[in-house]
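DM from R.C. (forwarded with permission)

"hey, sorry to bug you on a friday — could you get me a structure for this? deadline for the figure draft is monday and I only need the backbone to look sensible"
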Amino acid sequence: MDRTLISEFFHRNMPADMEQCIELFSIFGGYDEPINTDEPVESLILHHILESFESHRESLLSPLQNDSLYLNLLHAIAVGDRRQGSAYRRARIGKERGNEAFEFLRYSGYLTLERSREMPLQRAHPKQRFKKEVEHHRISHKFRFTSPFLRFWFAFVEPFSQSLREGKTTPFFDHFHTHFNAFVGFTFEELCNLYIRDILAPKFNSDILDSGSYWDREVEIDLLTETMEGETWVGECKWTNHKVNKKEFHKLDEKCTKISLVPDKIFLFAKRGFSNELMDLKEKRLYRFCAEDLSVLTN
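My reply, with the result:
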């Protein structure tokens, strides 16, 4: 994610705090018109998106020529785990056609690719066999939308296009209220990765070699950063209304053990802060950040 996107959004709209900023950014990031952050989020969506549904749809979908292949794939990526394989299965298209569709969507400015850092399966000898699920596993890259607004549209708005044309907003808002908090979590994760690259790396006098999420057949880690100095940093991001406790630290530690990783630094990012137990934890590698700490990204 480009830091300019969050900085411009903040200064254009001046939200009350970073929690509100992140929530609204997950909807309107990349949307050029100013919004009134004193209004409820439902009113903002109604005024800026749903009341102008047809004009937005024409603008967003005109390069796609209303092709269901592209619409299905974009929806699958917006609501799924973003992996190539699962996105193609959800969209019910094969790998070859899916790859062609992705290249078109990348060229058209909808998507980018986040490459997997999983290592290929190593065999002790050519005839070595593993369990069926291991043999059938394929390394899969992930897709990213180029802006939060695009992701929001294909996750929440486009699936309800028929009912919205009929003036029915209740199905949309019912779905929105059920799934929105989980949806914001990925935007929070992207901003935390940006915070590591732009704020923490200079603070620790480090140069970033690679930074992003990590996934393989067994584990998924929100943030994994490798530095030019040979250090590895890991992080987890929790967009929940309760304080993060010590259990989350141990879960991350277990994930690292599974992939034989001993991180040099461990970052926990939380929407609402941390339990006293976690704050009192004596672990020199551990650093804790809440949503408000990310405000420096808007400078």
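R.C.: lifesaver. The domain at 188-298 is CATH 3.40.1350.10 (Trna Endonuclease; Chain: A, domain 1).
me: no worries. The mean pLDDT is 94.
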